[in-house]
Model the fold of this input.
Amino acid sequence: MKLNINIDAGAKEPEITIITARMTEDINRVVDFVSRLDDAPTIISGIREDKVELLDPEVIVKIYAEASKVFAQTEKGLYQIRLRLYEAEEKLNNSKFVRISNSEIVNLKKVKSLDLSFVGTICMELSNGEVSYVSRRYVSKIKRVLGL
Done:
């Protein structure tokens, strides 16, 4: 893939043009990425006690799947969300939220400490006192993200 950037002092806003012979998966990924760059804040709606509340990602400690349902754990409590885990992962900022297993995503800003003494896994203590474990499959990714 070739990338060209033209600087034009008279441009009112950035403009992206894609020239291609056909649509490919790479082109679709670029289009999806660029279309998500809007400045609208990410808000996730959660249900607790038959009431819908809007959850700012900053208050979410972790999101996990259990019994075919997806939950968002916050400092205030547990909310059921109507997104699939992969949809929540796509919606959240991947520099703050990281998947640690097939069924769990954590907010890195809510990780209190890491215990690396376990062989093949990492134990994460979260700000709400809960403990989560990084599955073996995601250990190298987490180490890379955290610079370990």
User: Anything to note?
Assistant: The mean pLDDT is 86.
